[in-house]
């Protein structure tokens, strides 16, 4: 359930109230005339079940509320209310499957910024994975996966492609490209530095690495893992499951490959660098394709649910009239 805080200009307040009051998924409706000051207008508060949140937000936007007023939405963690229970029963579909597209877009849009924190995290993750490659240590690879922040831009890219937002697509691609290039460059330099101090050497890369050599040997399973990671990532994003845990799954297919590219390039083992780069490209493409397909299927299925609900509501209105 979402809690909505709407500031409606006086000439729109009646239409906004009617819209909210007429939706079966809205409850706990409160109208405070003239309470808002900046911007001025009526303050309208309500709770809406997630199954109806997307349609309600779209209706408010069609009224133009956001242009002269404002709309804010927050998650409601706990609701003890028979009215809320009835709203959930009257709304179509399941709240766990409902997608609030404005919420998804806002969440992912924030993660396209090429910030210092993002760059530090992806550099650190790649450096840790680079050491894990040389030591053939899956524990370090897992640690790097936990640190890797690339799930955000990848998710934003999928959402922006579906919503046809070229500006967000550009920012997402930039964050991924600059992030991975910077991380690999720093990892090359750190590998040279560690080699100069005698902590690692080229023989470690050339030795048998049964636990991590899959990173630079792409095959059909690389596509499978990438596709599964993309599906899981998008579902975690839209259903509000643990995005951090799924981010680890995303990183298993990206950060280690980028690290292996850097380490192999640092030692001039070009066949391994090329294999790792191919692994990285395959996995990134698979994640984006699967994520985009998952979002498209969710959008289509929920559109069908919403259409059936509108038809049912129209028949009920005609019968009541």
Which characteristics define this entry?
single chain, 321 residues, alpha+beta, Alpha-Beta Plaits, 2 domains, four-stranded antiparallel beta sheet
* SSE arrangement, N to C: EHEEHHEHHHHHHHHHHH
Return the domain count: 2
| Class inferred from helices and paired strands | alpha+beta
Contiguous runs where pLDDT drops below 50 for at least 5 residues: none
Sheet with the most strands, sense and barrel status? 4 strands, antiparallel
Shape: elongated
The N- to C-terminal Cα distance equals: 31 Å
How many individual helices?
14
Number of DSSP E strands: 4
Strand order of the largest sheet: 2-3-1-4
Mean pLDDT: 86
Helical content, roughly?
A: 55-70%
Beta-strand content = 5-15%
Question: Measured on Cα atoms, how large is the radius of gyration?
Answer: 24 Å
What's the oligomerization state?
single chain
Write the layout of secondary structure elements.
Blueprint: E1 2-8, H1 10-21, E2 26-37, E3 40-48, H2 50-62, H3 65-68, E4 70-75, H4 82-90, H5 101-109, H6 116-135, H7 138-147, H8 151-163, H9 166-196, H10 202-206, H11 220-238, H12 243-252, H13 255-266, H14 270-320
Antiparallel strand pairs: 1-3, 1-4, 2-3
Helix pairs in contact: 5-8, 6-7, 6-9, 6-13, 7-12, 8-9, 8-14, 9-13, 11-12, 11-14, 13-14
